[in-house]
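Title: Comparing notes on inverse folding

I've been comparing how different people in this forum approach sequence design from structure. To keep things fair, I'm posting one structure and asking everyone to reply with a full sequence. Here's the target:
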């Protein structure tokens, strides 16, 4: 049963994204509000130096407006309920509702956090974990460079739901990911990849059947710099 109406949930959390190259849904905020990422963007050779989320479609006024609404919504106490309501409805996990027309059958039940942007605070991560707990049949993937926020959340007793993969990203291209978190990702260019290589570049830049980013059986995923 939905906790809120779709209209009310959208008013709080904003809209979900339906990436054509990835399964299921996504949700992003402006990369201009990244914390660690903003610092890395100024460093040559970092994984954020050529940030895709600061160019292309991301600079359209409509996209920027959507990002701003989502960012504002995070601070609202009912945000987790709103997000869970939207995810359950769009993935067709509510009685009488079909999956959104943009979700392919193979993409039902998969969600990516932050195709743009990153964690803002411990409270933000706490709320994302609440969303995952409220949507146990959906697999969530949260890529982040905010390791300090993740560790602080854990230190204060925070629990990561079993359907939420938090994957900490390496900071430098061809660099090692942190050893302080078990699930990581990196970017390879001139050196050999570390971990399981993302197959997207060899399959029309799409995930297809691959779900390595969401998998707890894959310690590290490596993406080719593009």
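Reply #1:
Here's my take.
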């Amino acid at each position: 049963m939905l906790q809120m109406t779709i209209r009310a949930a959208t008013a709080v959390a904003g809209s979900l994204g339906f990436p054509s190259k990835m399964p299921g849904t996504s949700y992003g905020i402006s990369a201009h509000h990244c914390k660690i990422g903003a610092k890395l963007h100024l460093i040559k050779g970092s994984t954020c130096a050529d940030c895709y989320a600061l160019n292309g479609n991301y600079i359209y006024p409509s996209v920027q407006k959507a990002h701003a609404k989502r960012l504002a919504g995070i601070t609202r106490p009912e945000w987790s309920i709103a997000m869970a309501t939207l995810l359950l409805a769009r993935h067709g996990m509510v009685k009488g509702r079909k999956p959104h027309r943009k979700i392919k059958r193979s993409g039902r039940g998969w969600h990516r956090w932050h195709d743009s942007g990153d964690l803002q605070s411990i409270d933000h991560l706490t709320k994302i974990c609440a969303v995952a707990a409220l949507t146990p049949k959906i697999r969530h993937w949260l890529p982040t460079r905010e390791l300090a926020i993740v560790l602080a959340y854990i230190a204060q007793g925070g629990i990561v739901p079993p359907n939420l993969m938090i994957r900490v990203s390496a900071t430098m291209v061809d660099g090692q990911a942190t050893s302080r978190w078990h699930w990581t990702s990196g970017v390879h260019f001139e050196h050999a990849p570390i971990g399981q290589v993302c197959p997207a570049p060899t399959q029309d830049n799409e995930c297809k059947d691959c779900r390595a980013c969401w998998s707890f059986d894959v310690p590290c995923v490596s993406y080719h710099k593009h």
